[in-house]
Amino acid sequence: MFSSFSPSSMRVLRAAEQACRNHNHYYVGVEHLLLALLDEDDASIAVRSEQLGIHRAELQAELRRSLGTGDDRQWEGILVTPRLRRLVETTEQTGKATLEPIDLFNAIVAQQGGLVTDVIARVSGNISASSQVSHERCT
Fold it and tell me: In this predicted model, what pLDDT tens digit does every residue of 15-73 receive, in sequence order?
């Protein structure tokens, strides 16, 4: 499933797994991946965030608040949510040989529904932020 991830995208995935553990969650979701992407020192993500009117620090803080924490117990393994699985599969179908962190970021922002879409809309003050990315991809 992650075979087309670049080394930096794999690093982000490992950071997302750690974000999951930090919140006492047994699953890695799109929210955890976005947190990891925002922590990544990637100029293209910074530029794209600015274009969308997203303040990265505010988005990180709001995501962390929205995620909350799970039960305080040890999990034997970490699952990948169906939404994250679909996001990765869709991104891999773009035909790019290697997926970079910006590709994942754009896919997250373009998705419809879910916690991340709501949080991005609140932070950016732009309810249609995700539809703008979708429209830009199609033109």
Answer: 999 888 888 888 899 999 999 999 988 999 999 989 988 888 898 888 888 887 766 66
Predicted TM-score of the model (pTM): 0.81
Residue 103 and residue 96 in contact, taking contact as beta carbons nearer than 8 Å: yes
Q: Under DSSP, is residue 99 helix (H, G, I), strand (E, B) or coil?
A: strand
3-state secondary structure of 58: helix
Amino acid occupying residue 102: I
49, HSE (Cβ side, Cα atoms, 13 Å): 24
Q: Where are the domains of the chain?
A: 7-138
Dist. CA 99–CA 126, nearest whole Å: 27
Fold of 7-138: Double Clp-N motif (1.10.1780)
Q: Is the dihedral of CA 12, 70, 62, 57 positive or negative?
A: negative
Q: Residue 80: beta bridge partners?
A: 28
| Long-range contacts at 122-127 (CB < 8 A, ≥ 24 apart) | 122/62, 123/54, 123/55, 123/58, 123/59, 123/62, 124/52, 124/53, 124/54, 124/55, 125/53, 126/52, 126/53
